Amino acid sequence: MLFSVLFLFSYGQKKKKRPVDLLTEYHSFKEGDLKKDFKPTPLHKRVATFPFNKATKVKIISYKLNLKRSTANSYMPAPPPPKTKEDSIRLTKYYDSIKKNKKFELREAVDHSVFAGIQESRTLTLSEISELTDVIYNTCDKYYIKSVSSSGCFFPRNAILFYDESDTVFAYFEICFECSGIESSPRNILDPFKTCEYLYPGLQKFFKSKGLTTEYVEKK
Prior knowledge:
Layout: H1 2-12, H2 22-27, H3 43-46, E1 57-63, H4 85-100, H5 106-112, E2 118-123, H6 126-138, E3 158-163, E4 169-176, E5 181-185, H7 199-209
Antiparallel strand pairs: 1-2, 1-3, 3-4, 4-5
């Protein structure tokens, strides 16, 4: 009788589920595997994230399109003092070329509100901002990412500018598609795991779809 009661008691107890070892489960996937349970961040949460939540206008730009990355920091000595008329012409052309090809620094442009070096720009509509935030916040989250590496080179030609109510740039993302790198001001706006290698093809496609150039354009 006692054994029967114990048997019924033990049988009637609910079996406890084995605890899920999330770390073991995570390591069972390879780098770059798609997450089966991925749920994209909805639009209202994306635009509630800084700097989109503070922006009254978002603009994408291109610059340094005619400047080769390999020769951007190269130094060329000035021609000797002019002795003939031809020397004077060459010297004038030399200094004109320096002014024309002066390296554009986005940080300096923002600090001084002087954007003469921008070659292409486009102010985004609400639907385009939705596209952009989907790329930024939902691309890398689709994959299992165990580490994020950065390239030593960084020669940006594109950026995303964020303007406040006074039409002043208060934040920006500067992007180098050649090196797959992104830097922000203020620093570390984006979680490093949202800047994985899978981000750049989608982001570059977005820029190009809006008519902006993302690569070196050889002068003719």
